[in-house]
Amino acid sequence: QVQLVESGGGLVHAGGSLRLSCVASRFPLDLYAIAWFRQAPGKEREGVSCISRRDNLTYYADSVKDRFTISRDDAANTVYLTMNSLRPEDPAVYYCATTRWGWGLKAWEYDSWGQGTQVTVSS
């Protein structure tokens, strides 16, 4: 099973930016579609963005559209989530996840998950 490690979280002021990274090991990332999810305390896990396996098609939740950008560098076995114009409602633990089958923002479609990285936004 692919192993995933996220990094790049931290504290940022509202309106600021962060770039999250997710590095894969054990298997090449180009075998997988990848998604970012987030979970805030007391809330359900929410799909944020995903990128397809071959065509690099992307999809974003309405809550982050035009602010967040997902990208992948298969040579580096890394996927990124660039987050701009961060809002007070964006803080959460952000997780990357992979699937070899399908593509979308349903958590049950993904079978490998990282440990998460915390994003905090101060107002």
How would you portray this structure in words?
It is a single chain. The protein has strands at 3-7, 10-13, 18-25, 33-39, 46-51, 58-60, 68-73, 78-83, 92-99, 112-113, 117-122. The protein is mostly beta strands. Strands 2, 4, 5, 6, 9, 10 and 11 form a 7-stranded mixed β-sheet that branches. Strands 1-3-8-7 form a 4-stranded antiparallel β-sheet, with no helix packed on it. The model has no long low-confidence stretch (mean pLDDT 95).
Beta-strand percentage range: over 45%
- Tell me the number of strands: 11
- Separation of termini? 39 Å
Number of helices: 0
The coarse overall form would be globular
Helical coverage, percent range: under 10%
User: Overall mean pLDDT score?
Assistant: 95
The parts where pLDDT drops under 50 for at least 5 residues are none
Helix/strand order, N-terminal first: EEEEEEEEEEE
The class by helix and strand makeup works out as mainly beta
Largest sheet: 7 strands, mixed
Oligomeric state:
single chain
Top keywords for this entry?
123 residues; mainly beta; four-stranded antiparallel sheet
Strand-helix topology:
Blueprint: E1 3-7, E2 10-13, E3 18-25, E4 33-39, E5 46-51, E6 58-60, E7 68-73, E8 78-83, E9 92-99, E10 112-113, E11 117-122
Parallel strand pairs: 2-11
Antiparallel strand pairs: 1-3, 3-8, 4-5, 4-9, 5-6, 7-8, 9-10, 9-11
Summarize the structure.
With 123 residues, the protein is mainly β. It has no helices and eleven strands. The protein starts with a strand and ends with a strand.
